[in-house]
Amino acid sequence: MSFVVAVLILFSLPIARSDDAIPADKSQLGSWFDKNFAGKKPAGGGPPKVIKVGGGGQFKTVTEAINSIPAGNAQRIVVSIAPGNYTEKINIPKDKAFITLYGDPKNMPVLVFDGTAAKYGTVDSATLSAESDHFMGVNLKVANSAPRPDGKRVGAQASAVRVGGDASVFYNCKFYGFQDTVFDYKGRHLFKDCYIEGTVDFIFGSARSLYLNCEIHVIPGDRMAIITANARKDGKEDTGFSFVHCSITGTAPNAVLGRSWFPYPKVVFAFCDISNVIIPEGWSNNLHPETNSTVFFGEFNNRGPGASLEKRVTFAKKLTQAEANPFITLAYIEASTWLLPPAKI
């Protein structure tokens, strides 16, 4: 490799700034995040345009508001949603970038629908599908109200949200479902201060995502509950899920942090509080021992009764500081190039 080529490759890689590193002390998260994004100018053409749904606003439904936004939009548009229940299947298409759905943090709007894989296919079952780049969800409750899968009905899995656009973020959102609650489809994403509940594979997909200060809640009642099903198919894919300063909660001690849905899943838990809802083995190879050498299931400085590594499966990895560093930084999702703090209206 020539020197010139080597330099070009070096400068094409994302560079982590020192302030990108997530503090090990959870109490410092708020001030650290605010400092990181102080004064950052919004992308999408200056001050946002605000349109209102419900509460006497211009639109009665979120879908009507989305439909009013022109294709090829390049301006940040905040859809301010009044408190209440909105029973609709919401789709934000790829050609409508820079959209924010914004709710009242003290009285969050509820977006709810009962789509299932049997009726729409797994990919399109979600109540909220955000396919555009630079999407932002703030202070929302998103639920799929379809009945809980019972292992007998075909296609009973049902997503609350599917996020497939790049450079997308959810702040202070709550996601409710059973199997397949959050379809973290593809792209670079941040979930910050969110609540996610479910039963089986309830965070799944092929994105490169950082879950920061989220509560991951396991609903009891399954023979085995599974939090993550990462769909990384190839060792060269720059994708995976990183959970930092999250809490893993629930009441039935029969859950695993993740399973080998595809041969090369990459999932890391760092600085997390893990309750005894997680079994001592921690992870599952999904009855595919051939994936034991290809998975990347990492843990770093977690706490709680479910965090003990003493009886972990052999294919789980206790990360060193150096091995954990790429996952405990905003640079993991190249946030310095796109991330904005929550919209304000």
Automatic annotation (TrEMBL):
Q: Which reaction does it catalyse?
A: [(1->4)-alpha-D-galacturonosyl methyl ester](n) + n H2O = [(1->4)-alpha-D-galacturonosyl](n) + n methanol + n H(+)
Q: Which top EC class applies here?
A: hydrolase
Record-level Gene Ontology MF annotations: pectinesterase activity
Q: What is its EC number?
A: 3.1.1.11
Domain called Pectinesterase catalytic: residue spans = 53-334
Metabolic or biological pathway, per its Swiss-Prot or TrEMBL entry: Glycan metabolism; pectin degradation; 2-dehydro-3-deoxy-D-gluconate from pectin: step 1/5
Keywords attached to this Swiss-Prot or TrEMBL record, sorted alphabetically, are: Aspartyl esterase, Cell wall, Hydrolase, Secreted, Signal
What the entry lists under Gene3D superfamilies is as follows: Single-stranded right-handed beta-helix, Pectin lyase-like
This protein's major location comes to secreted
Q: Where is the protein situated, by its record's location annotation? A: Secreted, Cell wall
The active-site annotation reads D201
An example GO biological process term is: cell wall modification
Cleaved signal peptide residues: 1-18
Q: Which Pfam families match?
A: Pectinesterase (PF01095)
- Protein family (similarity comment): Belongs to the pectinesterase family.
Q: What is the name of this protein?
A: Pectinesterase
